[in-house]
Amino acid sequence: MSESARPVETVVEVDAAARGTAISPDLFGVFFEDLNHAADGGLYAELVQNRSFEYTPAHRPEWHALTAWELLERDGAAGSVSVAVEAPPHPANPHYAVLRTTTASTAGRGAGLRNEGFDGVAVREGERYDVSLFARLADGTADRLMTQIESRDGSRVYGRAELGPVHGSWERHSAVITCEVTDPEARFTVVAGGIGTVHLDLVSLFPQATFRDRPGGLRADLAQAIADLKPKFVRFPGGCLAHGVGLGNMYRWPETVGPLQTRRQQRNLWGYHQSMGLGYYEYFQFCEDIGAKPLPVVPAGVCCQNTEPTGQVGIPEEEMPDYIDEVLALVQWANGPADSPWGALRAAAGHPEPFGLEYLGVGNEDTITDTFRDRFSRIHDALREHHPEITVVGTVGPSPTGEDWEKGWAFARERSVPVVDEHSYKSPRWFLESTGRFDAMDRGGPHLYIGEYAARDNDMRSAVAEATYMIAMERNGDVVRLASYAPLLAKRGHTQWLPDLIYFDNTNVWPTLNYHVQRMHSVHSGDTALPVTVVGAPRARPVPEPARHSVHIGTSHDTRAEFTDARVGPLGADAAPAPDFADWDAELGHWKPGGDGRIRQTAHGTDARLVLTAAVDGPSYAFSVRARKNGGGQGFTIGFARTSPGNWYQWSVGDWLNRGMRLQRVDDGVLHDLNDSVDGPVETGRWYDLRVEVDGRRIRCYRDGELIHDLEDDPAPPEVFAVSAVRDSSAGDVIVKIANSTSEPVTVHLRLTGTEVVTGFERTALAAPPHATSMFGTAPASPVEDRLPGPVCDIPPHSFTVLRTRPDEAQE
Ligand code: AHR
């Protein structure tokens, strides 16, 4: 906060009578991907883990078909459990459990199976649970099955139900258990009725109290948290999950609809398993239940370019016609009449009415190669010909700049793709610096879908930066058509990606500060952007840079290397040798001076940095070092212009799978690429002379005397006090949104011109210290709602405020 802490006086004038600019009605939505265990053990309410015995070491090395299950031999019963594949209930779901009882218990019961659930089976007193399974009697008299919910130690029974009689061919059996106890860590058991062998598959325990009481549906509290965002659309199933690693791992929609036993389960590329219980039918149903448009994403006929060892591969020529038919069939499945071939499947699943599909994503972050262009064009052409009513959403690579982004946009323009999907995982500073990018967009080109974006790190700074970016989207809502934060869900103990929007465990749901921002924007969206003038707003303060810069040497990922002959000094003079490496600070990695003027980095599997603190006077100097790689898959990082532990520039030599070299900037620990990669992998065993020259904002990098990069990094001034105004015509309201990312309190004097007297505003405000973090646990602040009697509003530092008024009220 400024020293005097006197608020900055700011005037916000809104032309409330202006025609304004139409805003996309679908602007703010959500993106769901099964990452961080978002689906099985998360949004999909099934309580039994590995219910179909389809886990394999290919999904996770320590997994097998009986993971999460154990054999029960209680009260003298004895037996065994194994897994078989002969004549399963359905070939798509080949494995099943063989439960053999050789000795019955004193009570005449057989052996059984016990499931640990997903970190336990969370049950609640008085709730009813649907239990179901497929069973076949192979031999003996074990034709009854006792199922029960019990305590973790097995000492207490919370509810039970008997199933059977089991016959010699597969049949589905079901019952209902009413649970008598609340326990977040219960267990579920199935015990055979006597001696003999019984086959079991698709063993399920499902709460009846799902979201909107849909049988086999979604966990109510998590689904409600998503519904409360009032998303205009839901994008699914990915993300990388959509195009998969390798052609066999692609998410193929027809395999995810129909009876559960017919759905092809498979590896989740995020390192676990997809039961496909949450499939296209469930996604579409959820969209309908929350009034959001479905935005499915199908692979663009290529798998992920990061597939090892093949890279991007296209669906073979001869299979493309069938694949295109599959994509066209999705439209018929979603929208066709109940008596059409695919519409009939939807109707058979319980939804005779069309789902009303409008958008279809084709591809995700794919490298824009000739193979991609070919496959995408054929799918796009077919959709245009057969379903011109569908708006296709293309893809422009994994980041908002760079080669794929440029090629992706050029390709989309050439092919007249109506909307393209762009992704930004960046620092708060990047978002504040990038708010002008939509203002400059070509109004005649493809519309933009910001399909994935998030600012690090679930703190208030990131939340306000996102609010600011969303304000920029809103004022450009004529070309920014859709936007969704990512990732949406993350389970405690299984979080693979940070930050996320909603954290949860088996019984809790924790919305973040970022969630509150999304909700405030979405609930208070409008149809028309109005002109706004802001006078006297706080500005970005120039951050005083320390007079001396630090430099570092480093290695990336699993690389081992040695360095020698480090020099730093003023530009144009002979650089002096830097202090001995023994006096540098090891920030990461394992650094060992050799006594021969060299230092070796020997750690595996981590980035490593050795820092020479306050090495040189800024802003103009040279830093050079000799480096040799001794092993590993990437290369060196040469850091300079370090102004604090989380902020520096770096030259990555042997960047991203050792493909090339590029310049990067690290803001508060978040890496941004400053240029495209220049070819040039690092050879193991070869010495390289690496030299960086810093001349104010200009940076030059030389490898073995050859100039590799020469660029000026001149970031745009951040938009630190952002204001938008929109009209919500259906309600007759004017809505003003204000994001203040400064430490200044501001007093805003609001003027709405062209309207009758405004009598007051409904205010929703979210404010918290910039580094207050929200993850697992209650957020440090939540939106506060009140009524503002007049046009003067105090805006706290680090805050997001929404003001809503109905100017015509006074006239009524
Ligand atoms: O949101 C997580 C991942 O980030 C998505 O799967 C992918 O599209 C992006 O790289």
Give me the count of strands. Answer: 51
Number of helices: 11
Give the terminus-to-terminus CA distance: 43 Å
Q: Order of strands across the biggest sheet? A: 3-15-18-19-20-21-22-23
Radius of gyration: 30 Å
Q: Strand portion, in percent?
A: 35-45%
Mean pLDDT: 95
Structural class: mainly beta
Helix content: 10-25%
Bound ligands: alpha-L-arabinofuranose
Low-confidence stretches: none
Structural commentary:
The protein is mainly beta. The strands form nine sheets. Strands 3-15-18-19-20-21-22-23 form an eight-stranded parallel β-barrel, surrounded by five helices. Strands 29, 32, 35, 37, 38, 39, 40 and 41 form an eight-stranded antiparallel sheet that branches. Strands 30, 31, 33, 34, 36, 42, 43 and 44 form an eight-stranded antiparallel sheet that branches. Strand 30 and strand 31 form a beta hairpin. Helix 4 (about 320-335) crosses helix 6. It binds alpha-L-arabinofuranose (AHR). The site of alpha-L-arabinofuranose has 13 residues, from loops.
Topology:
Layout: E1 8-15, E2 21-22, E3 28-31, E4 69-72, E5 78-84, E6 96-103, E7 112-115, E8 121-123, E9 128-140, E10 145-150, E11 157-163, E12 171-178, E13 183-192, E14 196-207, H1 220-227, E15 233-236, H2 240-243, E16 266-268, E17 272-274, H3 280-290, E18 293-298, H4 320-335, H5 341-348, E19 359-362, H6 370-386, E20 391-395, H7 403-415, E21 419-426, H8 428-433, E22 447-455, H9 460-475, E23 480-485, E24 489-491, E25 502-504, E26 509-511, H10 513-523, E27 528-530, E28 532-535, E29 548-555, E30 560-569, E31 576-577, E32 585-588, E33 591-593, E34 598-601, E35 608-617, E36 620-631, E37 636-644, E38 647-654, H11 655-658, E39 660-667, E40 670-673, E41 678-679, E42 687-695, E43 698-703, E44 706-712, E45 721-728, E46 733-740, E47 746-753, E48 761-767, E49 784-788, E50 792-795, E51 799-805
Parallel strand pairs: 1-47, 3-15, 3-23, 15-18, 18-19, 19-20, 20-21, 21-22, 22-23, 24-25
Antiparallel strand pairs: 1-28, 2-27, 4-7, 5-6, 6-14, 7-13, 8-13, 9-12, 9-14, 10-11, 10-13, 16-17, 25-26, 27-45, 29-35, 29-37, 30-31, 30-34, 30-36, 32-35, 33-34, 36-42, 37-38, 38-39, 39-40, 39-41, 42-43, 43-44, 45-46, 46-51, 47-50, 48-49, 48-51
Helix pairs in contact: 4-5, 4-6, 9-10
Alpha-L-arabinofuranose binds next to loops.
